[in-house]
Amino acid sequence: MKKLLLLSFLCLAGTVFAQTNLTFYNFRTVGQTNFLNPAINSRQAFTLGILDNYNHFYLPGITAYDVLRSDETANQTLDKILSNDKYNLKNIQLYNEVNPLFIGFKVKRNYISFGLQTTLNHNISLPKDVLTMIYFGNTSINGLVGKDIQVSDLKLNVSAFSSAYLSFSRDINEKLTIGVKGKYHIGIYNGELLRNVSTLKTDSTGTNNTYRITATTDYELRGAGADRIDGIINAKSLDPMKLGMDYLNKPVGSGFSVDLGMNYRATKRFSISASVLDLGYINWKEAKSYAQKANFYFEGFVTDDPTQIDTTTLKNLQDSVTELFKPVQTTIAGYRTYFSPKVYVGLQYNLYNSGSIGFVGYGEMWNGKFRPGASVSYTQRVWRLLDLRVNYNIYREQYQNVGAGMALSLGPLVMYLMSDNIIGWAPLDGTLRLNSHYTNARVGVNINIGGRFDRDNDGVPDRKDKCKRVPGLVKFDGCPDTDNDSVPDTKDECIDVKGTVAANGCPDIDGDGVKDLSDSCVNEKGSMKLHGCPDMDNDGVADKFDKCPQDSGMVSRGGCPDRDGDGVLDKADLCPDVAGFMITKGCPDADRDSVPDNADECPSIPGLVKFNGCPDTDGDGIINKLDSCIAEAGPASTYGCPDTDGDGVADKYDNCPTEAGTIENAGCPALDPSLVVLNEEEKKVLNEAFSSLEFQTGTAKISESSLASLTELAALLVAKPLYKLEINGHTDNVGNAAKNQKLSQDRANAVKKYLSSNGVEGNRLKATGFGSKKPVADNKTPEGRQKNRRVEFKIVK
Predict the structure, then answer these.
(1) Total Cβ atoms within 10 A of residue 252
(2) What are the tens digits of pLDDT across the range 480-519?
(3) What CATH number is given to the structural domain containing 689?
(4) Looking at the whole model, is its pTM more than 0.85?
(5) I want to staple 93 with a disulfide (CB 3.0 to 4.6 A). Which of 18, 242, 384, 593 is the partner?
(6) Among candidate residues 449, 466, 487, the one where a domain is terminated
(7) Which domain holds residue 715?
């Protein structure tokens, strides 16, 4: 009973993007392979399809085998799936396609086919909680009591239509085939859930497993031929072909679509193909809208197991639910639905052993999203009767898919069966089966007239094929013409090079007796020795390789002369009659300094190119013969001798080498005329005041120990009224620069103030603070910083 409840929902389920058919692509023993690419057709002259049926089923964790079996193990499997959060029930798929008639035939370079088809496309996204309640019951064990079940997650899109189609393809040349297929569709029914804001809840106040169910509904459904959907759902069995015939004379919609395809045989074994399918639409008429907004509750519902509900309670519940969801029906204007375009891209490589390997890429646009798939396959023909294919498929991020297909040829009768995932049909248990989310199958029977066996798949039957194991051309009885020169390989002496029939497939355009295959100069007459190339100067070097084609030269020199034999060709040799070097362009270089002798100012001494071959030992930019200090670098102003203080007097002549001075004073600085010349006693007083001057830390307050020497300095200045004193304060670089500047100024002012208080006129005293701007020692050491914290005295006139 549980299984029937589940399947009653699944019978509604399906999708319009279910037709993958990865195993069926480019299966040329079966004429219907052009359903997937109108440019790929049967090898038969005439095909009559009397049965072709395709079904596709997708549901996470449930396979076709589960649906078909009826024992308790199947129920246990369904229990496990619905109890596992890993498996959701969105995008459940069921696709059914019946082709009662297919006729295909060749007319020279063309292939024409036509037929009839009926298709059912369903798409449903089912909330798992709803299905769990239907299957298990709405019990506290399942966690559904007291929980809002979002019925609004239910999505529905269903349609059915019949089609008549006409397909045409043409071999444009030996390599390219293009095809187009037009389809006219007659609509049978369509339904689409546009809005659904509904909830369902079982309260938690029941006793004896009896609860109250409350529900709200707000939905809108549009459709055409909705009465037919109801009839299909309630039918004991479903025959898509009978469905199409029953409603063919009462269509509720019509539309068109087109398929496009190409197949390009890049080489005699390798081909590339591509197709775009279902570019079209259906216009639906006699459309209606079904909408409802309502609230509902029902008392006394035993929810442990819905299969055990008594008839009266179930009848009351059904009446209430029916009343709740009974829609308000409104006639609306017609509407249009579009098919989901599909894209196939195929690669195939034919092997020598009547087999082939292939790749198929698949893609489809659905609701603005691209859904990809892919397949890798191997196909083998066995005993001229059986075509077998195995493949590995990836579809919708599912990776455990192994496909297989076969076509059995018994005279004119061809029976075929194939599936993209045979795991779904196998009686397997465990993880492998639970991860097999989809299953499909195509089965059919054809009658072939003019059937033929073609081992190398080149379109020429073996009974007429002179090269049975190598793909070839019809015009050469199945033998290839690799270079496309109209000479079959069996007679072509130059198989890979296009030639002429008269030359047995080999070209000789210049007529020099050397076949173009061996002729390096196909448009110029030459000699056999030089592979058909001319040699104008007869030096044994072909003109195309001869760097001097009009001057006879040596083979080792590329056909150019070298009179002095120095390895530098005469045309590039500046000294062609005197042996030289490559770096000096063929001229001699006695000192080997890369400066030719005729340009070397020091030809017998190795030097530098930038100094015209003369040396510069100390690298100061002054050549040795002009450098007064060859071993020591110096500036040009002192003739290459060092000048440490940069005063223009070389150190060896500078009496003050570390102190910039003047040439007149032999490199020493000139005396400052403003300075006073002090006697020894006065120098002692000044030095004592400088060396003993100290301040309290971080302030401008003079230490008591320094006052005595400052008093003596004040007495000296009072005794010498013409003397003036400059007081300059300095600090180290520790701390803020602005604060250091202020401190140095304050300390200079403090000394000035003390001297003034001891009788020295203020206009004779100048106090200046320099901060840390004029260090006399390195501020990086404590000793250096101590020396930089000072107040200097200078007596001026």
Answers:
(1) 24
(2) 888 888 888 888 888 888 887 867 888 888 878 788 877 8
(3) 3.30.1330.60
(4) no
(5) 18
(6) 449
(7) 680-796
